[in-house]
């Protein structure tokens, strides 16, 4: 019986540098003066878990930046099933695409865990960008990174197995909200198996079975709805 490291199970899934850069905290990429002048234009509001912040098809006149908590961005399929696009973590802006032209929202945004949010009106946001053109470049990079993510996900959904899509998702979440704890990497968000399934277009039962198999292989463990990746573990 041979023993091989499972590092390759994760490392073979390339995450584009453009998306990794775009997924880093937006507020941290601003200069102190830029951040201060942006946030002084904002109102801070608190929202409880499951609150819908905006819906697809409704005109949008605000930009949101997450201060604390977690927000889920998703669309609805014709069947009514959620198709989760990404999760916003502290420092992430959302609701951006519809603000410049005040067009209809393209997606839904729902509070995943109790959240505090910076809310910036369209007028204040456009005034800020007019005086800080460098930030416009940062926002364009963020939008392009998200677009790349969605196109990459769509491409891989037709060419990869469900297990490969799940592994790729775990690697992406590791980059977005991973936290090193010893030799493990904790994906620091309490995802349900249904939410994981909604991110890769699989059934909850399939995801449950695959996660159990991965635990048996020793490449991850699940504790209190947190997934701990073990990139340097070994299995037989």
From TrEMBL:
Checking Pfam families in the record gives: cNMP_binding (PF00027), HTH_Crp_2 (PF13545)
Q: Where is the Cyclic nucleotide-binding domain?
A: 26-129
Domain (HTH crp-type): give its ranges.
Answer: 160-233
A Gene Ontology molecular function term for this protein is:
DNA-binding transcription factor activity
- Write down any Gene Ontology CC term: cytosol
Q: Where is the signal peptide?
A: none
Record's superkingdom?
A: Bacteria
Alphabetically list the UniProt keywords.
Answer: DNA-binding, Transcription, Transcription regulation
This chain's protein is named: Crp/Fnr family transcriptional regulator
């Amino acid at each position: 019986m041979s023993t091989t490291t499972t590092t390759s199970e994760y490392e073979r899934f390339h995450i584009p540098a453009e998306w990794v850069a775009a997924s880093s905290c937006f507020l941290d990429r601003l200069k102190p003066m830029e951040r201060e002048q942006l946030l002084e234009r904002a109102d801070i509001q608190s929202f409880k878990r499951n609150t819908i912040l905006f819906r697809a098809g409704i005109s949008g006149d605000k930009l949101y930046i997450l201060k604390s908590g977690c927000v889920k961005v998703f669309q609805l399929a014709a069947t009514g099933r959620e198709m989760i696009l990404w999760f916003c973590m502290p420092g992430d802006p959302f609701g951006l695409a519809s603000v410049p032209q005040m067009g209809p929202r393209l997606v839904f945004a729902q509070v995943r865990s109790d959240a505090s949010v910076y809310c910036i009106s369209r007028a204040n946001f456009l005034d800020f960008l007019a005086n800080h053109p460098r930030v416009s470049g940062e926002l364009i990079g963020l939008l392009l990174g998200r677009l790349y993510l969605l196109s990459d996900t769509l491409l891989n959904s037709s060419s990869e197995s469900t297990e490969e899509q799940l592994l790729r998702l775990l690697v992406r979440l590791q980059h977005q909200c991973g936290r090193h704890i010893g030799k493990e990497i904790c994906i620091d968000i309490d995802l349900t198996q249904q939410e994981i399934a909604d991110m890769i277009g699989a059934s909850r039962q399939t995801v449950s079975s695959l996660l159990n198999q991965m635990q048996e292989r020793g490449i991850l463990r699940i504790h209190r709805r947190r997934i701990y990746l073990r990139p340097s573990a070994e299995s037989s």
